[in-house]
Specification:
about 25% helix, alpha+beta, about 100 residues, about 20% strand, Alpha-Beta Plaits
C-alpha cells in the first residue's frame, strides 16, 4: 500500500496545477542558491509567493498567464508542480523582510 501511495504522489507531483493561472512550485537542482532560483523564476515573469525549506524550492505565480513550464525547465528547473503537493516539503510563508536581490 505504501508503494502504491508513493507512486500516485510521484505521478501527481509532475502534473502542472489544474488551474492554468494558479501558483506553481518550482524545484531546481540541489545546491541552487535561493537568489538564483528566484532570479530564474523572475526572468520568466514569475512573482515569488513563498520560499521552501530548501533554497532550491520556490512557489511562484505568473500574472495573467499560465506558468511557462517548458521555459522554466530549460532554465534548469527539475520539477514544476502543484504547490499543494509541496506542503510536506516544509514550505515557509514569507517573512516581513525583503527577499534577496537578484543580480
Amino acid at each position: 500500500m505504501a508503494l502504491f501511495t508513493t507512486l500516485v504522489l510521484a505521478v501527481a507531483a509532475v502534473q502542472p496545477p489544474r488551474d492554468a493561472f494558479a501558483a506553481v512550485a518550482v524545484m531546481f537542482p540541489p545546491g541552487t542558491a535561493l537568489v538564483d532560483a528566484i532570479g530564474r523564476v523572475a526572468e520568466h515573469g514569475g512573482r515569488v509567493e513563498r520560499t521552501g525549506k530548501w533554497e532550491n524550492l520556490v512557489v511562484a505565480s505568473f500574472q495573467d498567464r499560465a506558468a511557462p513550464v517548458e521555459a522554466l525547465r530549460q532554465a534548469g528547473a527539475w520539477l514544476v508542480f502543484d504547490p499543494i503537493l509541496a506542503g510536506g516539503c516544509g514550505l515557509l510563508k514569507p517573512t516581513s523582510g525583503p527577499l534577496p536581490e537578484y543580480r
